[in-house]
Automatic annotation (TrEMBL):
<feature type="domain" description="Fungal lipase-type">
    <location>
        <begin position="73"/>
        <end position="206"/>
    </location>
</feature>
<protein>
    <submittedName>
        <fullName>Triacylglycerol lipase</fullName>
    </submittedName>
</protein>
<dbReference type="Pfam" id="PF01764">
    <property type="entry name" value="Lipase_3"/>
</dbReference>
<dbReference type="GO" id="GO:0006629">
    <property type="term" value="P:lipid metabolic process"/>
</dbReference>
<dbReference type="InterPro" id="IPR051218">
    <property type="entry name" value="Sec_MonoDiacylglyc_Lipase"/>
</dbReference>
<dbReference type="InterPro" id="IPR029058">
    <property type="entry name" value="AB_hydrolase_fold"/>
</dbReference>
<dbReference type="InterPro" id="IPR002921">
    <property type="entry name" value="Fungal_lipase-type"/>
</dbReference>
Length: 269
């Protein structure tokens, strides 16, 4: 696989693969993150970590920003399905105001992002000294934070319009009053990858919404750039029944970040 291409400025599948790897790297410790992004050609790196209230389902928030003379990547860490699915399943989850007062977002996501947002924004502003492209990425909870951070950065500082937001196994993050303006503001810049029966991508329940853009891996592992409701339901049934010995684990297995990286690598060929 070729190296991280810092000249990319639009949607490309190899770039999606590298951003999936960047999202996976967000799960690592600070030293590993710094060493790896240096190998990828980024000469600047800032690491962000904040502990949250011990009574809160999300224990902490972790992310990093990597910058070069051509590109900036901001990646947020996710969490494991066992830790996220219970509180995402709560239909009575509290909500918080969305970026610049647009719509509502899940309070858990809002509080997690608030803990490091000002540091992330400041790092992006320092790194962006030569009109570098700007990319956000994250898996699971990290995908929700990537979406919200990009929305907040643009709606509060319109000059910071990201060139791309790539998420993997992202949960529903906001209501339609933010999802709509976000889709309008980020045409051809947002790509939400979902793997078949990924359970986290199906949560939380209404009134939470997804942004519109989707790239869907079917039960056969092939990438589809669009999916009808009927086609998606049929394909999910295929994925669910393909492992007769452990059907209940299908949604957890499909959510793993390694699975997204592997599927994208195979899609490139």
């Amino acid at each position: 696989m070729s190296a991280f291409d810092h000249t990319v400025s639009d949607y490309q599948l190899p770039h999606a693969y590298w951003l999936a790897r960047a999202a996976k790297l967000a799960y690592s410790d600070e030293a590993t993150i710094r060493d790896t992004v240096r190998e990828w050609g980024f000469d600047r790196c800032e690491y962000f970590h904040a502990e949250l209230d011990s009574s809160f389902p999300i224990e902490d928030t972790q992310a990093y920003a990597a910058g070069s003379d051509r590109m900036i990547v901001v990646a947020f860490r996710g969490t494991e399905p066992a830790k996220i699915k219970d509180w995402l399943s709560d239909a009575n989850a509290l909500v918080a105001p969305g970026p610049a007062g647009k719509g509502l977002v899940h309070e858990g996501f809002s509080r997690a992002l608030d803990s490091i947002y000002s540091q992330v924004r400041d790092a992006v502003q320092r790194f962006r000294d030569a009109e570098q492209t700007l990319w956000f990425t994250g898996h699971s909870l990290g995908g929700a934070l990537a979406m919200l951070a990009s929305a907040r950065m643009y709606f509060e500082s319109p000059q910071l319009l990201p060139d791309g937001v790539y998420t993997f196994g992202q949960p529903r993050t906001c209501d339609r009053f933010l999802a709509g303006p976000y889709d309008d503001a980020f045409p051809s810049r947002v790509f939400r990858f979902v793997n078949n029966n990924d359970l986290v991508a199906q949560l939380p329940p209404e009134p939470f919404h997804h942004v519109a853009a989707i790239r869907y891996f079917g039960a056969d592992g092939k990438l589809r750039e669009r999916m009808t409701v009927a086609g998606g339901l049929t394909d999910r049934v295929k994925g669910f029944t393909s492992d007769a010995f452990a059907p209940a684990s299908d949604g957890v297995r499909d959510h793993q970040v390694d699975r997204y990286v592997d599927l994208l690598e195979k899609s490139i060929g």
